[in-house]
Write a structure and sequence with these properties.
Number of strands of chain B: 11
Distance between the termini of chain A: 32 Å
Helix content of chain A: under 10%
Oligomer: heterodimer
Strand content of chain A: over 45%
Structural class of chain A: mainly beta
Number of helices of chain A: 0
Order of helices and strands of chain B: EEEEEEEEEEE
Largest sheet of chain A: 7 strands, mixed
Strand content of chain B: 35-45%
Number of strands of chain A: 11
Helix content of chain B: under 10%
Structural class of chain B: mainly beta
Largest sheet of chain B: 6 strands, mixed
Order of helices and strands of chain A: EEEEEEEEEEE
Chain lengths: 117, 109
């Protein structure tokens, strides 16, 4: 078990609503990453936080935002939800996150399946 | 822009046959390449990375910079190898992973 936990496992909501996905990294990991996995786009990087600060941004919509708290857990907020936001959202964590050097191994959580009706 | 292409969505092989999962990438610098695997009902996990040059569960992968490929190989497939395999790339100085769309490997007993 990698130790990364995500809640909830499943989430069903309606268009226009707002949801919050939560991620707790492995003990000792300072970096948290969010990915979206949809059938047509595959696994896409959304955003990375390192020790509370945003480190890198990928294909994250303006309707989406994230933060990492002092206890290092992270939340991904999705607002004004659309049907196309239905996907599996993964969180991953790693020890480091600073640029340069080898890329840390990222450990993935089980994912949150979001269904927008 | 960086891109990872896995041309096969599904690959079926018989037990004991050789396996090769293809991965082609596009990146202008020196990338780090990875293979991740997701077994049924389990989370995505790292299988191997090109820097380590190791063999995990009998799988190996060689980075071919000339052909910009990082194919995953195993000489004799086992039933327990059936899973979803993702090739991923990380650019220099970046921890962000760019994934391919994955190949589902099915090993037929």
């Amino acid at each position: 078990d990698s130790g990364v936990t995500q809640t909830p496992k499943h989430l069903i909501t309606a268009t226009g609503q707002r949801v919050t996905l939560r991620c707790s990294p492995r003990s000792g990991d300072l970096s948290v990453y969010w990915y979206q996995q949809s059938l047509d786009q595959g696994l896409q990087f959304l955003i990375q936080y390192y020790n509370g600060e945003e480190r890198a941004k990928g294909n994250i919509l303006e309707r989406f935002s994230a933060q990492q708290f002092p206890d290092l857990h992270s939340e991904l907020n999705l607002s004004s939800l659309e049907l196309g936001d239905s996907a599996l959202y993964f969180c991953a964590s790693s020890v480091g996150g600073l640029s340069g050097g080898r890329t840390d191994t990222q450990y993935f959580g089980p994912g949150t399946r979001l269904t927008v009706l | 822009a960086q891109r990872v292409t896995q041309p096969e969505k599904l690959l079926s092989v018989f037990k004991g046959a050789p396996v090769e999962l293809k991965c082609d990438y596009s990146y202008s610098g020196s990338p780090e390449l990875f293979w991740y695997v997701q077994y049924s009902r389990q989370r995505l996990q790292l299988l191997l990375r090109h820097i380590s040059r190791e063999s995990i569960k009998g799988f190996t992968a060689d980075l071919n910079k000339g052909e910009t490929s990082f194919h995953l190989k195993k000489p004799f497939a086992q039933e327990e190898d059936s899973a979803m395999y993702y090739c991923a790339l990380s650019g220099a100085g970046s921890y962000q992973l760019t994934f391919g769309k994955g190949t589902k490997l099915s090993v037929i007993p």
